[in-house]
Amino acid sequence: MSSVQIRDVRKSFGNFEVLHGVSIPIEDGQFVVLVGPSGCGKSTLLRMLAGLENITSGTISIGDRVVNNVQPKERDIAMVFQNYALYPHMTVGENMGFSLKLRNAGADEINKRVKRAAEILALTPLLERYPRQLSGGQRQRVAMGRAIVRDPQVFLFDEPLSNLDAKLRVAMRTEIKELHQRLKTTTVYVTHDQIEAMTMADKIVVMHDGIVEQMGTPLELYDKPENQFVAGFIGSPAMNFLKGHIRVNGVATFEGPNGVKLPLKSAPAASDGKPVVYGVRPEHFTLADDGADAEIVVVEPTGSETQVFAKVGGEQVVAVFRERHTFQPGDKVKLKPDPDVIHLFDQATGKRL
Amino acid sequence: MAVMAEPVAVPERRGSLWSRAFESRNFLGAMFMVPAIAILVLFLAYPLALGLWLGMTDTKIGGVGRFIGFGNFVSLAKDSVFWLSVFNTIFYTVAASIVKFAIGLYLALLLNERLPFKSMIRAIVLLPFVVPTVLSAIAFWWIYDSQFSIISWVLIKAGLITRYIDFLGDPWNARWSVVAANIWRGVPFVAITLLAGLQTISPSLYEAANLDGATNLQRFRHITLPMLSPIIAVVMTFSVLMTFTDFQLIYTITRGGPINATHLMATLSFQRAITGGNLGEGAAISNAMIPFLVAAILLSFFGLQRSRWQQGGRD
User: Cβ contacts (< 8 Å) between A150 and chain B: which residues?
Assistant: First the structure.
């Protein structure tokens, strides 16, 4: 196990820079998730960490060692690929023992370690099978087994669950997290799925267009997104944004589109008339008589909760209620955001106010 | 839902036998197969059967032969020229196939790397395959000429030899010379086919092996070779079959000489049957190739059976 330091790393393909100076400190044993929309550079960064891509500038160190010019095989890392990259001509056991065989480990040693990893992942009955004879979830586990056998300094996961169906994905998510709690190996995990990030990570790094937008624990990102991008990216359904101005005369309020008034706990200093974006999570709406007028557009019951799409001041917002409501499209209701947990962003910069 | 479609009893259609036949899947299926079967029978089965029959007669050009059973084979068994041609054919096939495979694999690996002008180099590699065999054979004939050989000329100018090499006059020189010509001609097929096979190997397997600690050589040994083995089996079967039955190169460059040192079974068969007029004996020589070819096909059949790792499904 080892810490990992990524310092001001840049990556260019030709003249095109895809990573614009990324710094991420990763502590020993931490589970770090790099999350962001496709094209944000998260996979490139992971591949640079693995040594599969060159580092244009900046440094990456694993433990105390700068690994910029260290061959992938000398970095003592294991990676789980999106398509698993299992060797099709080797059995599950051979796949898992391949790295040990290359290091000239004895047959007994290989056997012992493969067996142990197979037990951890419940792969023991499959050791003699070939990858083609396995289901997607089993292949995924073999790929992890191959990583575990190595007992590396760092585990890298490159969108490992994106080829699985929704139900299996949830199960594997738990399995990976449990595995990490058991082995405590430093892990860097790339995904575009914010739910995966939220549920698994000790620390989330939100990336966008080649920069780090914010990093922190899942709940820090949820409670205090530093900018509008992070606010919109973390949380599902996504946060509602309404454009408008702050009005301070006695009490601070937010005046949104078509004169809609929404409550503020307090206004930032000297901000009367300031153009802002008002952000409120769907789960922070309540029905209240002093709320803003809203007209129901669509109601989506999921059983555990009800998602309600409504028009507020002509803008569509979504609200989520734990209790069951029997709204019909066209119904008029009054929605009130909880002023304690709303978010204000600067309209020009998108920064949190 | 006003009216339900009433199940009306359709009166049985009383078409002619002909029109009813055309509605039958089996009849139509058979009809569609007729052209293919006709072509196979006319151009493959009939000539093969005729050849087998001829081999058991003493037919000469212009005459009607009589059935002599295995008489031709008995006399061939005592014919040293025939046995020399068998040796030549095996030597030619084995030597050329091994070198074609080695060079072909090397070129394929090279072309699979990131190279400048890659597509142009690929096109150039294919060139020997595009040139008509007889034309390239004539070119080799000049290259090997005892007086005008460019190889001898270059070597003499370079001061490496003092006399022109007698490429086609010495038995072993001639054998190696035709093998070289065959290699030149056959490498593109091997190289391009193996290249196609290499490109089906997922790059992530190499990345995974790289992270697993494999050196270049280990990646080749543990990833490339096993993944490529099905393609290797196909390409080498075809290569062996084509080399074993080669005729054009030999007939154009040496006509089997010197003193039958480069006669293959195919060229000897032609010489005895057409030039010599002994159709029966020539056919018998051709028929003698069949066991070798069947052996090669069987070998590839069992080699080509998909290995266990390629089979899907559950056990």
Answer: 212
Identify the closest residue of chain B to A148 by CA–CA distance.
B212
Q: Which residues contact A194 (CB under 8 A, 6 or more apart)?
A: A35, A233, A234, A235, A236
Q: Does A102 touch chain B (CB under 8 A)?
A: yes
As a whole number of angstroms, the distance between CA A134 and CA A124 comes to 13
Using an 8 Å CB-CB cutoff, list chain A residues near B200.
none
Cβ distance of A88 and B227 shorter than 8 Å: yes
Determine contact: B249 vs chain A, CB below 8 A: no
Q: Are strands A306-312 and A315-321 parallel, antiparallel or unpaired?
A: antiparallel
Question: Quick one: closest CA in B to A85, which residue?
Answer: B205
ipTM of this predicted complex? Answer: 0.82
| Residue that has been written with the tokens 């892990």 in this structure | A187
Structure-block tokens of residue A76: 């003592």
Helix (H, G, I), strand (E, B) or coil at A76: coil
* Tokens of residue B154, six digits: 């270059």
Residue-by-residue pLDDT tens, chain A, 353 positions = 689 999 999 999 988 999 999 999 999 999 999 999 988 999 999 999 999 999 999 999 998 899 999 988 888 899 999 888 999 999 999 999 999 998 888 899 999 999 988 988 888 999 999 998 888 888 988 998 999 898 889 999 999 888 888 888 888 899 899 989 988 999 999 999 999 999 999 999 999 999 999 999 999 999 999 999 999 999 889 999 999 988 887 788 888 888 888 888 877 766 778 889 999 999 999 998 888 899 999 999 988 999 999 999 888 999 999 988 888 898 999 999 998 999 999 998 989 98
Q: Would you say the pTM of this structure is higher than 0.90?
A: no
CATH of A240-346, picked from 2.40.50.140, 3.40.50.720, 3.30.1950.10, 2.60.40.3880, is 2.40.50.140
Q: What is the residue type of B247?
A: F
Which CATH number does the domain A4-226 belong to among 3.40.30.10, 3.40.190.10, 3.30.465.10, 3.40.50.300? 3.40.50.300
Residues of CATH 3.40.50.300 domain(s) within chain A? 4-226
Check CB contact of B226 with chain A, cutoff 8 Å: yes
Minimal CA separation from B226 to chain A, in Å: 7
Residue to test with chain A: of B206, B207, B210, B211, most A Cβ within 10 A: B211
- The answer to whether A77 faces chain B, any CB pair under 8 Å, is yes
Q: What angle do CA A300, A306, A309 make, to 5 degrees?
A: 55
* Interface residue A142 vs chain B (CB under 8 A): no
